[in-house]
Design a protein that fits this description.
The complex is a heterodimer of chains A (599) and B (316). Chain A has 599 residues and is α+β, with helices and mostly antiparallel strands. Chain A folds into three domains: 155 residues, no CATH class; 92 residues, Nuclear Transport Factor 2, Chain: A (Roll); 304 residues, Beta-galactosidase, Chain A, domain 5. Chain A is 15% helix and 36% strand. In chain A, the strands form six sheets. In chain A, strands 1, 19, 20, 21, 22, 24, 25, 27, 28, 34 and 35 form an eleven-stranded antiparallel beta sheet that branches. In chain A, strands 12, 13, 14, 15, 16, 23, 26, 29, 30 and 31 form a ten-stranded antiparallel beta sheet that branches. In chain A, strands 2-3-4-5-6 form a five-stranded mixed beta sheet. In chain A, 48% of the residues are buried. Chain B has one domain: 6 Propeller (Neuraminidase), CATH 2.120.10. Helix content of chain B is 9%, strand content 39%. In chain B, the strands form five sheets. Chain B has a five-stranded antiparallel beta sheet with strand order 1-13-14-15-16, with no helix packed on it. Chain B has a four-stranded antiparallel beta sheet with strand order 5-6-7-8, with no helix packed on it. Chain B has one helix and 20 strands. Chain B is globular. The longest helix of chain B is centred in the first third of the chain and has 27 residues. Chain B starts with a helix and ends with a strand. Classes of the chains: A alpha+beta (599), B mainly beta (316). The interface between A and B is large, with 50 and 44 residues.
Chain lengths: 599, 316
């Protein structure tokens, strides 16, 4: 049958070109930033800016925050509509505010104030009446529609009031919907865009206020969304030549969420540029389709997001010496003890075209690594979210690779909750393929190092012997070896011990045993060593003499929601009238210490 | 006398003609979209299960029950009399998704991975299974002749099924082998008379939901594009061939709570309105606990010759 193109060819070319530009930056900017995204224009602009971002410190934003905090202390925490001096609109608003139905959602069930605001008051139209009875009352005029937005619940409440009768005729809620915003918020949205350095950088200079179009038109305001944060977002758009720069501005947090160039064409309205689209496209183009090199503090490596094995590092060297061939997080097995056989086997990875059940929505981060007040290295970290997190049965996982200036490194992972219950056990499956072809693996017997002759596994338990330094294993060869120190709660990151299975398998050069992307290798709910890596051992374990080695590390962590003891857990709380999340991560993972290093 | 006979005959002819026109007008209604008659029959084997058949249905979306299930719903919101039945053969092909039932009660099903691919290996995602209406036994029925198999960057194969009662043709949509920059999916027309046989294939289409309807008295296949949320259609002949070029009918883009829903299921109600079930779909395995699905309704305007969005029912 006929074939037909899904995109005009030129659009594909333009998109690829934009992506190329966005994922590449001048060489001098690479690998120099700390606490900043590694990389590229998309990355920088799609980042969730922290509360101490440049824009949030500006006086016009601070003034808004002060006003909000003041209103939150009032008995009825609602910012009133102030766009008009029309007295009738004010009266209509006051009538609505007296109706308990209209005020039903302005506070939490515990009485904590939500951030609420009346966005608009309008003379009612026939289509607002809803039924004949109200139509009869309103046919002589005097009826108004009052629209209120609840930032915390992303909820619109609409009241229809009749001024002559001083009565609210009807009230209804529209979940997950946002009314047209008032003029002052339009101005703030444009100002946030204009004042954001990322916008100025993209445009080649700070735009002038009049250059932002569309922010004051209904069409444009309805044409952006923050689907993941569920915040109020709009898109001031700047035209430059034949291109338009869409800026996504979050009016709940007063910050820039992302940027995206489009071509101004005459092919009708383009699909809306939204938070999720920008995040997914940026991650896919910059981190899922290509590796990113990193060169820092003597460490060199490549990293990228995989389809189902999380963030993968590869070709890792320290001061020129090969250390790791590749390391990644293959699976998360989550089982719930109260329901036999109930749980999930989650893969993590790219947001588009992947076998991931929990996906990356933000780019990888490179952060300083501190011990006390001393900077000792850097961390490469990546989070993976379910969109409903931290609601029950949604997940947030974190991977972090710690690289120390003295050659140590740690491969750590954490669940940030919340999962489907307080009886969950998380079993992350980490795979670390070491560099080199002539490696040996030893286990501390209590008195000496015992060499593993064949592929096998061992469990870290209460009676496990450690060296006086706390090491359980040793891997490498004479020229390049590492002690392995499993988590026992000693790493000052909240971890309480790993109770880990460690497997060692041959790193085959002639067959793929997990070096390429691995789909889910084990079921959710096995409570023994059968977590997947054993498939590469049984039924005939191979010799470990004079071969390359792969170490698999499966920690076993029970979650806890007991007050004061929360672990692998997350909970929502109300802060400044909107929901924030408190997390209790359960980090696990071994530290690798060079055998000849002085710590 | 002759005149009166002539007038009477003329009256009868005119009456018949007018009534015929009126009947035709009623059939196609004023929208130009004619509801397609569903012919699905209850499979005879369910009679022996012992369920109350007035409140029972087949399901492939039970969270703790892999494969096909036959569910008896509770008799009241507080009643504790719901039941679940599974024939021993219904779990063997992993998690299942789309389903179509023919006029004899045979059930056609396709697999769909849920959360992971442990029970749904890539190569099996382009298979269609059939539950025998008499015995309830499920077995492999047909394997789509796809050019590219599902893989780790796109674990999906068949995403939609619909049965055309008039021709006994099963239509399947597939996204097998597609990549972010390459469309490899297709729509397959399969004869169910005797041994299943491929009648035609619409190539380079990544489709999910699929439906059949008459539009301006032309039988057309409608499908949802999983990349952009568009609903397209193409003429469908009595011989099971796709005729002419596909055309865009309407879109889910920017509609609803999420704004980027993709059409999972397309059906037409008795008025000819198109009802599209929209879900999030990004070629990954995210599986929200709460099923986020929104029904969107479109009505055809015969004068404008286009579909107009009527409403989404997410708030109702």
């Amino acid at each position: 049958m006929n074939k037909y193109p899904i995109f005009p060819t030129f659009l594909v070319i333009v998109f690829v070109w934009l992506c190329y530009l966005s994922c590449n930056q001048p060489e001098e900017n690479k690998n120099t930033s700390q606490k900043k995204l590694h990389g590229n224009a998309y990355g920088e602009t799609a980042e969730f800016f922290p509360s101490d971002s440049v824009v949030s410190k500006l006086p016009f934003v601070q003034a808004q925050i002060e006003t909000i905090n003041k209103i939150l202390k009032e008995p009825i925490p609602i910012r009133l509509f102030q766009d008009s001096t029309d007295n009738m609109l004010k009266i209509a608003q006051e009538i609505a505010l007296k109706d308990p139905r209209f005020l039903q959602s302005v506070k939490s069930p515990e009485g904590k104030p939500f951030r609420n605001e009346i966005f608009g008051v309008f003379p009612a139209r026939e289509s607002d009446y809803g039924n004949r009875q109200i139509g009869e009352i309103c046919k002589n005029g005097g009826c108004y529609r009052v629209e209120m937005y609840n930032y915390a619940k992303n909820l619109t409440t609409v009241a229809l009031v009749n001024i002559p009768a001083q009565q609210t005729l009807s009230v209804y809620n529209l979940p997950y919907s946002q009314p047209d915003i008032p003029n002052y918020l339009k101005e703030i949205a444009i100002k946030i865009a204009i004042e954001s350095p990322e916008v100025a950088k993209a445009l080649g200079g700070k735009p002038i206020p009049g250059a932002a179009i569309m922010a004051d038109t209904k069409t444009a305001l309805n044409r952006s969304r923050c689907e993941r944060s569920m915040h109020l977002c709009v898109s001031p758009t700047f035209i430059k030549g034949e291109k338009a720069l869409w800026t996504i501005v979050d009016l709940t947090d007063f910050r820039l969420v992302g940027l995206r160039w489009t071509f101004v064409g005459d092919a009708g309205p383009a699909p809306a540029i939204t938070e999720k689209k920008v995040q997914n496209e940026m991650l896919t183009e910059c981190f899922c389709k290509q590796q990113t090199p990193l060169d820092q503090n003597g460490w060199k490596m490549n990293y990228m997001l995989t389809s189902s094995d999380g963030l993968r590092i590869s070709e890792v060297t320290y001061k020129g010496k090969p250390v790791i061939q590749s390391a990644k997080l293959v699976d998360w097995h989550v089982s719930y003890s109260n329901t036999d056989g109930f749980g999930y086997s989650d893969a993590i990875g790219c947001p588009f075209f992947s076998t991931a059940a929990v996906v990356a929505v933000e780019p990888p981060k490179i952060l300083d690594l501190w011990e006390g007040d001393k900077k000792v290295g850097f961390v490469l970290s990546q989070n993976f979210f379910s969109e409903g997190w931290p609601q029950p049965c949604n997940y947030n996982y974190q991977q972090k690779f710690e690289f120390y200036d003295n050659g140590r490194f740690r491969v750590a992972v954490a669940s940030l909750g919340r999962g489907c219950g307080n009886d969950g056990t998380y079993r992350p499956v980490t795979r670390i393929a070491f560099a080199g072809n002539n490696l040996a693996f030893h286990e501390w017997s209590g008195t000496d190092w015992t060499k593993w002759e064949k592929e096998q596994y061992a469990l870290q338990k209460s009676g496990t012997p450690y060296t006086k330094e706390g090491y359980q294993y040793k891997i490498g060869n004479e020229g390049n070896a590492f002690y392995i120190e499993p988590g026992k709660g000693q790493f000052n990151d909240g971890g309480r011990g790993d109770n880990a299975y460690t497997y060692v398998t041959v790193n085959h050069l002639d067959k793929d045993e997990g070096e390429s992307d691995l789909v889910t290798i084990g079921p959710c709910c096995n409570t023994d060593y059968k977590q997947g890596p054993e498939k590469f051992i049984e039924p005939n374990p191979e010799s470990l003499n004079n071969v390359g080695l792969v170490m698999w590390y499966v920690s076993q962590i029970k979650n806890d929601d007991t007050k004061g003891k929360e672990y692998c857990w997350a909970e929502s709380y109300i802060k400044n009238g909107t929901y924030s999340t408190r997390t209790y991560p359960c980090f696990s993972g071994p530290m690798f210490i060079p055998v000849h290093s002085k710590q | 006398m002759k005149n009166s006979v002539f007038v009477a005959v003329l009256f009868i002819i005119l009456s018949l003609t007018l009534s015929g026109c009126e009947k035709k007008e009623k059939d196609v209604r004023y929208t130009g979209s004619k509801a397609f008659q569903d012919c699905k029959a209850q499979p005879p084997f369910v009679q022996s299960i012992g369920f109350d058949l007035n409140r029972s249905a087949f399901s492939t979306s039970e969270k703790k029950s892999k494969g096909l299930s036959f569910i008896q719903f509770p008799s009241s919101p507080t009643a504790n009399d719901s039941k679940l039945y599974q024939h021993p053969s219904w779990k063997q092909f992993g998690w299942l998704g789309p389903m179509a039932i023919d006029e004899k009660g045979n059930i056609y099903l396709a697999p769909i991975p849920v959360v992971n691919v442990l029970d749904n290996p890539f190569k099996k995602q382009v298979e269609i299974y059939k539950v025998n209406a008499q015995t309830g036994e499920m077995s492999l029925y047909y394997r789509l002749p796809v050019e590219k198999e599902p893989h780790e960057r796109n674990p999906y194969g068949i995403l939609g099924l619909v049965y055309d009662c008039e021709t006994s043709i099963l239509i399947a949509t597939s996204v097998s082998g597609s990549e972010r920059d390459t469309v490899s999916g297709g729509i397959y027309s399969i004869s169910t008379k005797g041994t299943p046989a491929l009648l035609d294939k619409l190539e380079q289409v990544d489709a999910m939901g699929v439906g059949v309807n008459y539009l301006n008295e032309e039988k057309r296949i409608f499908w949802g594009d999983v990349r952009n949320g568009d609903i397209l259609s193409v003429e469908f002949t009595k011989e099971g061939k796709f005729e002419g070029n596909p055309r865009k009918e309407c879109t889910l883009a920017d509609l609803g709570q999420r704004g980027d829903d993709k059409p999972r299921k397309i059906r037409f109600n008795k008025d000819g309105d198109m009802v599209v079930m929209g879900v999030e779909f990004n070629f990954n395995l995210i599986a929200p606990t709460e099923k986020q699905e929104t029904p969107y309704s479109f009505r055809y305007d015969i004068f404008e010759r286009k579909w107009s969005f009527i409403a989404d029912k997410s708030f109702l």
